[in-house]
Amino acid sequence: MNKKTLASLVGAVLGAAVLTAPAHAQNVKVGLLGGITGPIAAMAPSMLDASRLAFNQVNEQGGILNGGRLEVVVGDSACNPQNATDAATKAVNIDRVIATVGPHCSGAVLAATNSVAVPAGVLVVTPSGTSPEITRINDRDLVFRTVPSDDYQGRALARTLKARGITKVAVAYLNNDYGKGLAESFKAEFEAGGGTIAGYSGHEDGKASYRSDLAQLARGGADTLVIFDYGDGTGLTILRQALENNFFKTFIGADGMKSEAVIRSLGAANLTNFFASAPVGEASASLDAFRTAFSAAGGNPDAIFTTTSYDAAFLVALAIEKAGGDRSKLAEALRAVASAPGEPILPGEWAKAKKLIAEGKDIDYKGAAGDHEFDRAGDVPGQYAFFKVSGNTYEAVGEMK
Amino acid sequence: MTLLDFINFYLVPGIVLGSIYAVGAIGITLVFGILRFAHFAHGDMATLGAFIALALVTAGMDPWTALPLAMAITAGVAIGIDRTFYDYLKARPKIVTVMASLGVALMLRSVVQMLWGVDPTTYVTGIVRPTDYFGILLRPRELYTLTAVVLIVVGLELFLRRSKWGKAMRAMSDNPDLARLSGVDNRKVTMLTWAIVGALTAASGFMLGINTEVESMMGWHLLLPMFAAAILGGVGRVQGAVLGGLIVGIAEELSVFILPAQYKAATAFALLLLILLVRPRGLLNGKVL
Fold first, then answer.
1. Where are the transmembrane segments (chain B) (predicted)?
2. Which ipTM value was assigned to this complex?
């Protein structure tokens, strides 16, 4: 018997030992990665609490699989690629999680999935990475999100402008993942619909003057300016300088521009031709169920991304249950539990879902943030409305198709 | 594009921006010329000055009346910072003070963020449409900004050339030991320098704020162009800082003709590199005041 055969024999025996391990009362580890430190440190605690609420409900209502518990491994992705990779590496390779909720920020999601989670075959559901780049990850169907991609917003905005009779625009975007992603989606859809982009340029933030940028954009002859930027940052400077110099007549922004700071600084009277798109939540029994449960647990259900964080965690738990703990079937199981048809499951209804899965029935999770019917890339569509300035706040003037 | 369009939308914004850089760069050049270190807290001191002015405006003052008062208060703060941090490190290698000034920058910014928050705000709500002067479009605030810059530069030049204390500052910039032997009180000159620098930073922060918005990162974003301006003109030279500021400001605005707009911020870097390669002493031979 040579060494090679011996080695493979030992390997086979070890493998068999793992396979025949008792299947009852086995705990399952899941990762919870979030930007605990860094730029979104103020948002992260509520998001993590919302995800923990879902895991706690699972453990209180019969646990996962055969009476096992979900063990949560928390990692700090710090909203940056390096920390996200480190946190994901630890969760995947040391703690051996089979799925993660998070990371939170787009850049962190891209890094953690490309370099760690996808090669290891670990399911990732992010509650807040909105960059269109996440759609394009070569993810072997392992990367999902419960928050809509900015791509939908850019396209919806393009269609809305067309519907309002605007056919020629100039686009100014902030040169980062957010601004650039939105601008590219908008441009593609607007041009596909027969519109003309008469000026298209990116800018860095923090400059004192954008008048020359605006003059260049205005030379294209458009009288509508679309700004993909933040209304409590550079976007405000650009809007002010465009208004003061009469470069454009109408101004359109996306959710980043829908900031109270714009109205406070420029005055509502000057903003009669300023419009912005923004995602809107849909009232539903699911949302009410989540709000009640999260408030009872001491959380603030109005904090940003709490609904998507809760849904991401609950969906991961459902997928693990459906797949019987088999990581290779997780993605397929996630689609099955999230999509119609099936018996509707609302937030918190773990015991009911577990029973139905055990009976082999199909279920359809109706989340607090929406229905979560994942498309081929693992994205969910969003609901957006078009806002105008009214008084000292924003007022919706219509749905965006 | 007509000539008037060029003046209104490229040249005038460049000159206004350049003047703001110039006022900041004078401060950098004074610290470097007299105290001999690169002061990284300069931008955030400008932020603080802008917010002190904001506090005065919120209390009911007219912005341009608030400016001198804000300059005086910031001058006091600058002296305080010197006494608390830089003076203590005087005998150590200068690099320690440079690093300390970076720490001071972070502290100042945090204080501003704690007191006033991180949301941008403005001195005056609303927008101001320009007045037409024979085709050249100018806003009152731009005229005031340019006037204020001219007054500051002329006043400072006169002070440095004619007054006893101005001469003492120049002497210390030339050779601190020799100045002390000749009876110049280095301590007092240092205090005076910080008072002037503090007032200048407040002025640059205020003028940036009134032409755009007031927010906690505004000064930090100014730092690079201000350093570029100071080095471009020749470190230690007041006229050099003014010249450098104007060149950097105008170059940034004109760069959109040849570069995509997202590279606008890199223009200051490019100019800085170029001058360091071609003429490291700056346009007006730098070194002493």
1. 6-33, 45-61, 67-86, 95-116, 143-160, 189-210, 222-251, 263-280
2. 0.80
This prediction's pTM: 0.76
Taking the mean position of all CA atoms in its chain, how far away is CA A16? Answer: 40
Q: How far apart are the CA of B231 and the nearest CA of chain A, in angstroms?
A: 20
Note the pLDDT tens digit of each residue in B4-57: 888 888 899 999 999 999 999 999 999 999 998 999 999 999 999 999 999 999
Q: Where are the domains of chain B?
A: 3-278
Separation CA A47–CA A49 (nearest Å): 5
Q: Which amino acid appears at position B31 of this protein?
A: V
Is the Cα dihedral A81, A86, A89, A92 positive or negative? negative
Query: Tokens 């007219």 label which residue?
Result: B62
Amino acid at A259: S
Q: Class of the A27-147+283-365 domain?
A: alpha beta
**Between the CA of residue A254 and those of A270, B10, B83, B126, what are the distances in Å?**
19, 28, 48, 22
Closest CA to A256 of A222, A279, A237, A281: A279
Q: Where are the domains of chain A?
A: 27-147+283-365, 151-272
The reply to whether CATH 3.40.50.2300 applies to domain A151-272 is yes
Distance from CA of B114 to the nearest CA of A (A): 14
Chains A–B, number of C-beta pairs less than 8 Å apart: 104
* Residue A245 structure tokens: 């110099």
For B3-278, CATH gives 1.10.3470
CA atoms within 13 A on the CB side of A14: 6
For residue B139, count other CB atoms closer than 10 A to its CB. Answer: 18
Which residues of chain A make contact with B253, given a CB cutoff of 8 A?
209, 211-212
Contact list, B120 vs chain A (CB under 8 Å): 232-233, 236, 261, 265
Instruction: List pLDDT tens digits, range B141-153.
Output: 999 999 999 999 9
